[in-house]
Amino acid sequence: METKIFDFRTNLNEEELKYCAKCLKEGKIGIFPTETVYGIGANALNNEAASLIFKAKNRAKDNPLIIHISNFKMLKDITKPPTKIEQQLIDAFFPGPFTLILRGKKNIPSKVNAGLKTVGIRMPENEIAHKLIEYAGIPICAPSANLSSKPSGTKLEDIKSEFMGKVSFMIDGGPTKIGLESTVCEVIDGIPTILRPGKITKEDIISVVGSCKLDASLFKESIATPRSPGMKYKHYAPSKPAILIYSPDESLLLKLIKEHLKPKTAIIGSKEHQHLFSKYQYFSYGKKNDLEEIMHNIFTILRKVDKEDIDYIIIEGVKKEGLGLAIMNRLIRSVSFNYLEK
Ligand code: TXA
Ligand code: MG
Under CATH, which number does the domain 4-214 receive? Predict the structure, then answer.
């Protein structure tokens, strides 16, 4: 298959974007940027188009896709009326890095939401994504654009080779603004429950509806049937063994990192600690307290480290609070739950 590449980094070309929208409408698949990570999209009302995504990503069939919309008519077409709390969340966080699990209508193809009664809906705010969906005139199902188990793509160049020849188009929109996938939230027994943490935090949700809890699966390794099926799969993993280390006590944290050093170790950690490990390959994810920056950099760094000639990876953790919760949720998965906290 020929893959057409469009460069919208400095300028969005309306005609080319309309071409991509037409491809999606016709049942082809393509890669586009959103404010969180790049997505690989298809017509969400077309079973065959959706199955092309599962094939291209090598994704497990029981892992449902998020449906992306650009207006509220699309929402009405595919979901049952939201409850009052769900509506408040929609009003507060659409468009944005937020996916809400709602009850789906029967017109959603079973391949798209893995035959569940519910469906994840997100309205991206990124201009390219928004216009692409609007021009296509149909909801677009789109998982993150990465081969299953690999880190999500936050720059087109990181994922190009994984999908060349497997998709009809790729749109380069530059590095994504946020860098981690959307917050996934489901209102369960009247309480918003975070199934996957992201830029929209528990505190943000509490400020809108007064309550919010974290799903039990966020930091657990093996729940047989988590509410968010994606949580049970291997994720974001480099090919070398890795450990994630954290302590709120700065000197203990450094001591633990030093104890785990081996000859060919790469360290992913804060800018402040870089000078202490000058003999090792060090990948700074940004300043300790700049969680937005860390969020933005983490997937690209995980991909970069994977290309180095090293035998072992040590990752410095952050405090599991605010945005730190989402960062740690991804990092713990990236080391396959090999996590040390003291
Ligand atoms: O930021 C994002 O959400 C990106 C961009 C492209 O929009 N998309 C994304 O999709 O991260 P994906 O497929 O990589 O992750 C979707 C997550 C999975 O963990 C999946 O299990 C969960 O959302 N999910 C989807 N539908 C669900 C449903 N009906 N019930 C529970 N979890 C659901
Ligand atoms: Mg993904």
Answer: 3.90.870.10
